[in-house]
Every structure is written in structure tokens, then in C-alpha cells.
Design goal:
about 110 residues, alpha/beta, four-stranded mixed β-sheet, two-stranded antiparallel sheet, 8 strands, about 30% helix
């Protein structure tokens, strides 16, 4: 039950959202999760500040994961997310922040897993 939520400084076209969503779907296997359970969200035109300065191109990506993964998996996923955002939106790696949230209780369809 992973969820990848992206807050992105600039505009993201529907075409780019579809491409990024597809690539995130492929990348989620790095955390041993199937794309069939992946939810992806986008917030574009999002104001992000780093060191007191507004970023022209930047992203904050939050990955929520039912269960957990190891540091090596998180490292690979961070690299892949950063690469995707660089290639698709030209966001410099130094301006991409990724956090991971391991969830022990997750509800779906009116039921707790």
C-alpha cells in the first residue's frame, strides 16, 4: 500500500504526470511493492523554500509505505525518484528532497489491513 506524494514548484502537465506516475510505478518495485497497489499524488505550483530562498525548480516527495524496507532499498528509491524528476521536469538533484514513512496500520475500502 505505498503512496508517493509529490509537491513540485512548477507546472506539471497531464502528460508529464502520466509519465512520472508510470515511472514511479516501475520504481516502487525497489521497495518490494507492486504497482497495482501504488497511489500517486501531485501538487504542482507549490512554493518551496530552501535556506530561506524560494526554489525555482524543486520537489518534496513523501513516500508512505505499509511495512518497511531497508536503507539500501530507500537509497536506490531516492536515486530513482531524483533521476525521474531530473529527466522529466529538469529539477536538479540538489533540490529534490525525499522522505519515507513506514506505516503499521493502513485502512482501505473501509477496513484496516
Amino acid at each position: 500500500m505505498p503512496f508517493i506524494d509529490s509537491k513540485i514548484t512548477g507546472a506539471v502537465s497531464e502528460e508529464k504526470k502520466e509519465l512520472i506516475k508510470t515511472r514511479f510505478g516501475q520504481a516502487i518495485s525497489l521497495l518490494h511493492k507492486p504497482e497495482s497497489y501504488l497511489m500517486v499524488g501531485f501538487s504542482d505550483h507549490y512554493d518551496l523554500f530552501l535556506g530561506g530562498k524560494k526554489l525555482e525548480k524543486g520537489a518534496y516527495v513523501s513516500v508512505s509505505l505499509y511495512g518497511s524496507a531497508g536503507k539500501q532499498e530507500y537509497e536506490k528509491m531516492t536515486q530513482e525518484i531524483t533521476t525521474i524528476l531530473l529527466e522529466e521536469l529538469e529539477i536538479p538533484a540538489k533540490n529534490v528532497y525525499v522522505t519515507y514513512h513506514e506505516i503499521t496500520d493502513w485502512g482501505i475500502g473501509g477496513h484496516l489491513l
